[in-house]
Amino acid sequence: MMHRKRIHCFGSSCQLTIDTLPGEADALVSIATAELSRLEHKFSAFNADSLISKINQSAGTGCYTALDPEALSLFDFVTALWEESSHIFDPTTRLLLNCYDDDGRLKATDSQVKAMLHLVGWSQLELTHQGALLPQKGMLLDLNSCIRPYAIDSVRRKLIKEGIENAMIEMAQDAVTIGKQFDGANWLLGLRHPFGNRTAINRIKLNGKGFAMRGDFERRTRFNDENFGRGLSPIDGYPIPGMLSVSVVADSCLEACGASSVARLKTEKAAINWLENLGLPWMAIDRELRCHGPLAPK
């Protein structure tokens, strides 16, 4: 029997769909909820007691925040994305969001943007055996875009350990599945097309795989009379002239997150070449609202 449950975490709604016996559903939901809560409490930048918040609060004090093996592996993952993106993927750019309004329009002056850039740069983060340290007061980290896919991958692992063979976990722009649906039907995920009716979508199969979309063509902003996504450059503080959104299917949600995050920050031509070389199913929407990739509507 299929059971559905919505769980609020990481400032978003997470939907859990599980095929299990009626008497087992509550226990499985509790396992999933506990894991999501654990990771939110541990890593969310919006939780004042989280490890990330402690690093932010200690910025400029010279005090290191200890990292356990789980945290170290996540920092290693982020560093790998930073390197693969030629240092454009940078969680310290959260600070630059203060320069823009809710619609993505620049509200700061050029000099104010430039002044903030000295507080931006993943390369400034010190990672040693003592832990993590941001050297300057005012620097900020936000790893939520990587923690969310890690969290639902972790829930999938726990459900598999409990013997679950059919499940889907969705949160924000991320999703991961176990097997197919209980009746053999495919898990289907909708991708919105940038033209035409808002309900027109391309549906993709997501059986035993992870999915991530980074960027959002519907929340694009205009900058110097051009379309841009909300990604900000750690180099100059302005919107990055890359794809408006990139969607990827991979073996895990975190792998899909890594691929889509890096591709979105490359130039459009470089992103297409890079994604094609990865060999994963993908769809990208460029700044002219054209769709690219094997998952694009035909």
From TrEMBL:
Q: Which InterPro entries match?
A: ApbE, ApbE-like_sf
Query: Which domain of life does the UniProt lineage start with?
Result: Bacteria
Q: Which UniProt keywords apply?
A: FAD, Flavoprotein, Magnesium, Metal-binding, Transferase
Q: Which Pfam families match?
A: ApbE
Q: Which reaction does it catalyse?
A: L-threonyl-[protein] + FAD = FMN-L-threonyl-[protein] + AMP + H(+)
Q: Does the keyword Thylakoid apply?
A: no
Q: What are its cofactors?
A: Mg(2+)
Which EC number(s) does the record attach to this protein? 2.7.1.180
Reply yes or no: does the keyword Metal-binding apply.
Answer: yes
| Family recorded in the similarity comment | Belongs to the ApbE family.
Q: What is the protein's name according to its record?
A: FAD:protein FMN transferase
Q: Which species is the source of this protein?
A: Candidatus Seongchinamella marina
**Organismal lineage:** Bacteria, Pseudomonadati, Pseudomonadota, Gammaproteobacteria, Cellvibrionales
